[in-house]
Amino acid sequence: MTKKLSMQEIILTLQEYWASKGCMLMQAYDTEKGAGTMSPYTFLRAVGPEPWNVAYVEPSRRPADGRYGKNPNRLYQHHQFQVLMKPSPENVQDLYINSLKKLGINPLEHDIRFVEDNWANPSMGCAGVGWEIWLDGMEVSQFTYFQIVGGQEMDPVASEITYGLERLASYVQDVNSVFDLEWGYGVKYGDIFKEPEYEHSKYGFEESNQNMLLNMFNSYEKEATRLIKLGLVHPAYDYILKCSHTFNLLDARGAVSVTERAGYLARIRKMARAVAKAFVIERKKRGFPLIKDEKKRAELLKDHSKNKKGDK
Amino acid sequence: MTHEYLLEIGLEEMPAHVVTPSIKQLIKRAGDYLKQQRITFDSIKPFSTPRRLTIQILGLSDKQPDINKSVKGPSKKIAQDDKGNWTKAAIGFTRGQGLTPDDIQFKNVKGTDYVFVNKHIPGKPVQDVLSGMKKVITDMTFPTMMKWNVYHLEYVRPIRWIVSILDDQVIPFSILDVKANRITRGHRFLGHDVAIKKVSDYEDDLKQQYVIADAKKRKQLIVNQIHDLAKKHHWQIKVDPNLLEEVNNLVEWPTIFAGSFNRRYLELPASVLITSMRDNQRFFYVEDQNGKLLPYFVSARNGNSDYIENVIAGNEKVLTARLDDAMFFYHNDMNKSIDYFVNRLKRVSFHDRISTMYEKMQRVEHISQIIGKHVGLDSTQLKNLKRASQIYKFDLVTEMVGEFAELQGVIGAKYAQLKGENDEVARAIREQYMPISSDGELPQSKVGATLALADKFDSILTFFSAGMIPSGSNDPYALRRQAIGIVRIIRRESWHLNLNDLLNSFIKAETADEFDVQLDQKSQINNVIDFIKDRIVKLLQSEKIHHDIIESVVNGHNPDILFILDSADVLNQHQNDSDFKLSIESLTRVMRISNKANFKPDELNVDPNLFQNDSEKKLNQAVDEVKNGYYHLMPNEIYQRLSNLKRPISDYFEQTMIMDKNSEIKNNHLKQMVILTNLILWFADLDKLIVK
């Protein structure tokens, strides 16, 4: 192999590659979330009939996975490189494999497998069918054909590819600890993230204010529910993301018992379903502008008025 | 002349466990379709890999057989007018059959002449029939289905290509955007697309493109390579058939390789090593000739041996990271005592609406002692049972079980041994969850069986008391599985346990102590008994016992599970006896008459002074003999005694007018009937039997 790619070179390579395959490059969304899937550029845009092709890096927070910066592979926050293509292209698997080639991973020199892994995120009302992608036995990506998002059945179906950037980089750079990864110009991942990892773990496991978090959850939920009713989809969604993250913080703190847990997840799911539905309604109101085929567009909009009557 | 047909469905990687059932399904559907279409064939040869489901149909007939049939039309009277001209009805009928009135013949049917035509339907050529394979493909069903792109077809994974050739000709059809042709795809990385010239080229053509399409041959290749490797290194490798099946359906061109890990990880419990290798990475683990784990693993690459050192290094790295994690957990766990973990269970919820895990153990400590004494465990066993029940959930708070949840119980047993508990205690801890599926392995030790029973009884009782009763498909805590576990353990151990007394004594012991669950368990006893009886029904059904026998035994009054199961066996064995029908009919006659009576238990005395005839006396004596020691008898003895009553009963009915005008005499009769009915019901509700 030639020179080992740094984290930022890996990101740049993937961005350039997917941009060349018709994806718009979006930026990370500025509200805390547990996965790239929860960005509105995936969760909301996957829903409804409009085409959508994007790629972006998403820092993803999982408070319960924090290990004070001491575990070489587990992190409070890791980075996902997310690709969403709707409708799913015919050659999407090949597109993915070629992206690995761009990173210097020649499939003939490795063992690349698609191992069944059906993904579900019940709290967001999501389910999909797909694989983990194994590179010499290591899971480096998740590949999913969304079937249901926010309780909405997919039509058309979006394909989602999520690269675990730290995992992939550990492989490319051949290091055993993520903290030894080179981000760029000799600066190590640990130089940047070890301190926040420690602090967030300390906060999440020991110092978070449970009462404050509980109150926040309730307030966010109230606000989100109110905004959904007003058709203010995007601010509503921001508050749902905040609910989700607040719940994750409570969960990490051990403040949520088994049954309460199911209750919280059900509350988030209810909002997620409502906002996904509202999103489609709002897009319809705007005439599904991303659909360029006028005949198809007209047909979908005709359906819309019928459904709307039916709803009332 | 016969033909050969090749059909290949090219898919994105199917789940490994779906491949084999799906190819079987395709064979069945294709065969059924051809039979329904009246096309004969010799055999169907299957091929399957993660990316393809293929069948070769050999010895196909050229076309459907022609059909000649005579079709009846209107009567002659209607078909011709007075002058003998064809009517509209006649013309219409022949046109409907694709013929003309010239083809009409008359035949006499029961004295009336009718119009008949001979119709010849030529058989469709096999080519036309085979285009219908499209529907065979789209009709396939899978455990998980998905949609893709803009299409609405649901399938196991997206269909990417289809090969459909008869001998050397493409049989065209399309599914969504895929047109059937002769191009197949080779190995994803090593191979290329290849055009299949004729059906019989398929296997070899694919082999050229690094695909072993025959699943059996591929599997054999894997096994042979594993054996070669084992022989070379003097290893012992147990080729787990489930893992082999899975690995076989993850690869198209298997190359077996071995990797190693640092010897120091062998310090880990074997179950942790095996789970990490087998379940997480799909590796085969390696043992020496004495069955001791060695620091090696064996796996299959989907490809050839080029650059295999990269593959080995990568897999070693992944396994090492896992084992390193496990080692970290193991050392942390080893630094703590069982008491430490047990104490932590005070803060772990069994269920919010029930209690902590610690309190559950306290309840189970009492319950298990009650059961243990009842089934006759000796004092050492009781002592070990007590110790086991005091600590048996401790591994739930170890870091190892936090990481490897599926090893609960197994880790507990291992740690217990390492921390100085004796083997019987450790074994009971390991066996507490058994059986983990409805036909899973049962505990082997008495202490383990007792603990497993106690734990399950407590779960069912407390969940019921907290209002979480399974309904329909909703059984989130798998209480049904636990109930069937109870039934199976009791049967295996041949333990006589009176459910009613037992459940009452559990609750009594708990209420007497401070850890009372504060739930109304008592009110749930009958529900729990019914719930367990439902599982008895299911178990007997699975053993193909007749429905009426099952109904009969579970409606008997003896609350002893083993007795119920054995009664079913007894009835099942005797149901074909020559006198079975007679015996049952005489007994059920008694039962039906006794329905008319309503006595308090203390009124149930037969007065011999009121007897009117000899048969009454004889029946009364016979019943007294039956009663003697009756409630301690095994079901087969009970059946014999009851069966022997048929003669006195029939004599009795012959000579006795039950509903005598004298109410005193009548009641005396009815009391006799009720006494006997109660004896019968203790055994089984024989009135539920259907005797032919």
TrEMBL record, chain A:
GO terms for molecular function: ATP binding; catalytic activity, acting on a protein; glycine-tRNA ligase activity; transferase activity. Keywords: Aminoacyl-tRNA synthetase, ATP-binding, Cytoplasm, Ligase, Nucleotide-binding, Protein biosynthesis. Its EC number is 6.1.1.14. GO terms for biological process: glycyl-tRNA aminoacylation. The keyword Aminoacyl-tRNA synthetase applies. It is an enzyme of class 6 (ligase). It is found in: Cytoplasm. Tetramer of two alpha and two beta subunits. Belongs to the class-II aminoacyl-tRNA synthetase family. This is Glycine--tRNA ligase alpha subunit. It comes from Philodulcilactobacillus myokoensis.
UniProtKB/TrEMBL annotation, chain B:
NCBIfam families: glyS. It comes from the Bacteria. The gene is glyS. It is found in: Cytoplasm. Belongs to the class-II aminoacyl-tRNA synthetase family. GO terms for biological process: arginyl-tRNA aminoacylation; glycyl-tRNA aminoacylation. This is Glycine--tRNA ligase beta subunit. It holds the Pfam family DALR_1. Tetramer of two alpha and two beta subunits. GO terms for molecular function: arginine-tRNA ligase activity; ATP binding; glycine-tRNA ligase activity. GO terms for cellular component: cytosol. It catalyses: tRNA(Gly) + glycine + ATP = glycyl-tRNA(Gly) + AMP + diphosphate. SUPFAM superfamilies: HD-domain/PDEase-like. Its EC number is 6.1.1.14. Keywords: Aminoacyl-tRNA synthetase, ATP-binding, Cytoplasm, Ligase, Nucleotide-binding, Protein biosynthesis. Residues 586-675 form the DALR anticodon binding domain.
